Amino acid sequence: MTTADGLWLFSYGTLREPHVQLATFGRRLESVDDALVGYALSMLRITDPGVIAISGSSEHPILRATGNPGDEVAGLALKVSEADLEKADRYEVADYRRVPTTLRSGRRAFVYVAADR
User: Is residue 108 pLDDT above 80, yes or no?
Assistant: First the structure.
């Protein structure tokens, strides 16, 4: 889902952190503030030791669809490449799945949401 202005990944959690970006992508990613409407955050206990080592935490946020237009989650739209998406897929544990979405700005992006939805 490449758009005219590139490929984007919405992050509301650890992928916003500079040290996680460096460990996952080998560089800091270009980003802009944005938000996702119709979702709410909850927390997830991570057990993957590699992810915990990179993020420094076993508690990670996870998005769940609410369908309520009043619910909004702030985050960053990260400009990524196809190779970056593959790296992000390896970083995220099986509790997450990557889906396409439209952000509050109108930007098309991918986002990781709860896999049980």
Answer: yes
